[in-house]
């Protein structure tokens, strides 16, 4: 399982950004092959985005689509970026 974590800064209205991102990003990730999970944390002027993918190839495809959407539709700038194979991850079964 491959992970992707980005920390962005932003300078637009948080609520508007969150609404716009939720509407666009969920279809991007769920329609990208190998998608496992996606989550977002808003903290002050930062957005922390984390996702899990079946492989590095899948993560790269999702990453490219997400970064293109961010670049085209928001003021967010990448502050830090981490990608790699998870050493371990537990996913609850329901």
Order of helices and strands: EHEEHE
Largest sheet: 4 strands, antiparallel
Spatially, the strands of the biggest sheet line up as: 2-3-1-4
Rounded radius of gyration (Å): 13 Å
CATH class: Alpha Beta
Distance linking N and C termini: 20 Å
Q: pLDDT below 50 for ≥5 consecutive residues: which ranges?
A: none
CATH architecture: 2-Layer Sandwich
Assign an overall shape: globular
Instruction: Please indicate the percent range of residues in DSSP E strands (runs of 2 or more).
Output: 35-45%
Helix/sheet category: alpha+beta
Task: Tell me the number of helical segments per DSSP (H or I, 4 or more residues long).
Answer: 2
Proportion of helical residues: 25-40%
Q: What's the domain count?
A: 1
Rounded mean pLDDT is 94
Brief summary:
By secondary structure, the chain is α+β, with helices and mostly antiparallel strands. The protein is 37% helix and 36% strand. The protein contains two helices and four strands, in the order βαββαβ.
Overview of this structure, please?
By secondary structure, this protein is of the alpha+beta class. The chain has two helices and four strands. It has helices spanning 14-30, 56-73; strands spanning 2-9, 35-43, 46-53, 77-85. Helix 1 packs antiparallel against helix 2 (56-73). The radius of gyration is 13 Å and the shape is globular. The two termini are 20 Å apart. The model has no long low-confidence stretch (mean pLDDT 94).
Comma- or semicolon-separated keywords:
Alpha-Beta Plaits, about 35% helix, single chain, about 90 residues, 2 helices, alpha+beta, globular
